[in-house]
Design goal:
Elements: H1 8-12, H2 16-27, H3 29-35, H4 41-53, H5 59-95, H6 97-115, H7 125-132, H8 137-144, H9 149-157, H10 161-173, E1 176-177, H11 179-188, E2 202-203, H12 207-214, H13 219-232, H14 234-243, H15 255-264, H16 267-274, H17 279-287, H18 291-304, H19 309-328
Antiparallel strand pairs: 1-2
Helix pairs in contact: 2-4, 2-5, 5-6, 7-9, 8-10, 9-12, 10-12, 10-13, 12-14, 13-14, 16-18, 16-19
């Protein structure tokens, strides 16, 4: 049996299935049974497994999960009633601008998850890449723009660099896509779902989406893809770079945000990520640590000895992913200047 430790940090580490299990447990068996009637057999099995694994759930964790669930429900119903902008107004009134934005991002991602290209989200990246290798880059860009950034990154790893860069270039240039176009793509690739909640054009791609995908990749591979984009469109390349958050950008985080990030990083992973980092970044991080933690970090870095560059880049990529996850959850602020802050 598994016990969940208290605190907001523990909630951030929980999976969607674990949170669903906590919600159902809090509602009691009668209401939970009614809710799960609309679940698939696979979903019921997965959530039942999580419920069986849970032993003790602290009250503060339950409260956090229920609060998050309530906010997500408000967002979904508001979108259904009056669209995304109406939902944004409702949430901003209830929880503030920053948190409203992060909630809407998660809701829109979940709505896309439940609607578009459902079958492809479970596809093996290697097989999927082989299927897409001979397709026109524009079709591939349309497809990848509607998949999860991590899945898109995995697919790009299995495509030739020139092809991957061309696909990202076209993905960055995407804006509005007609639902009919997406439905044709879905039928071609074996998905039976419908792609849009409304008949309006769907927003997809754009420089921010490409920046998010590139943040999932190692620095060396990201550089290769960006070289392809830069050669074709230097202005768009600069726009993407300005939207990206790379490992060295950690030095720009405010103290509170950086301390929040450091709480979730294991010392060995941090040491490996810092092995090839600049001295100013190392000193910035060490300066926010206790003397004991700083000494431990220095020792860990010293114990590493020679390491492979790809291992360092993988550790740095993992840290960047964590930072992006914390930003999406509204836990930290990334890339906001002093003029963007309200105190």
């Amino acid at each position: 049996m598994k016990a969940i430790a208290g605190s907001r940090g523990a909630v951030d580490q929980m999976t969607g299935r674990q949170k669903a299990a906590v919600v159902l447990m809090a509602m009691g068996p009668t209401i939970a049974a009614e809710i799960t009637k609309g679940f698939s057999a696979e979903e019921i099995e997965e959530i039942t497994y999580e419920i069986a694994r849970l032993d003790r759930v602290p009250s503060d964790v339950v409260n956090h999960v229920l609060s998050e669930w309530g906010q997500m429900e408000t967002a979904v119903h508001s979108i259904a009633e009056g669209g995304v902008e109406y939902a944004r107004q409702v949430l901003e009134t209830a929880v503030g601008t920053q948190k409203a934005g992060s909630i809407l991002k998660r809701v829109e991602a979940q709505l896309r998850e439940s609607a578009a290209f459902r079958n492809l989200r479970n596809a093996d990246p290697v097989q999927m890449s082989a299927l897409l290798r001979n397709e026109h880059p524009q079709a591939v860009a349309l497809l990848l723009a509607h998949l999860d950034p991590e899945q898109t990154a995995d697919l790009l790893k299995n495509l030739p660099t020139q092809v991957g860069g061309d696909v990202l270039l076209r993905m960055a240039r995407l804006d509005k896509v007609l639902p009919d176009v997406l439905q044709v793509l879905e039928r071609c690739y074996g998905s039976e779902s419908t792609v849009s909640i409304t008949n309006e054009m769907a927003t997809a791609g754009g420089p921010q989406a490409v920046a998010t995908v590139l943040n999932q990749l190692t620095a060396s591979f990201e550089k290769e893809l960006m070289e392809v984009i830069t050669a074709a469109d230097a202005v768009l390349s600069d726009e993407i770079k300005n939207l990206m958050f790379v490992f060295e950008d950690i030095i720009k985080l405010d103290d509170r945000s950086l301390q929040r990030v450091l709480r979730d990083i294991q010392m060995k992973e941090l040491a490996l990520a810092l092995k090839a980092a600049s001295e100013p970044l190392k000193q910035r991080i060490i300066g926010l640590m206790s003397q004991r933690a700083a000494d431990t970090l220095r020792e860990e870095i010293g114990f590493l000895g020679p390491v492979r560059l790809r291992d360092v880049e993988a550790a740095q990529t993992a840290v960047v992913r964590m930072i992006r996850a914390l930003e999406a959850a509204g836990e930290i602020v990334v890339g906001a200047g002093d003029d963007d802050m309200v105190i």
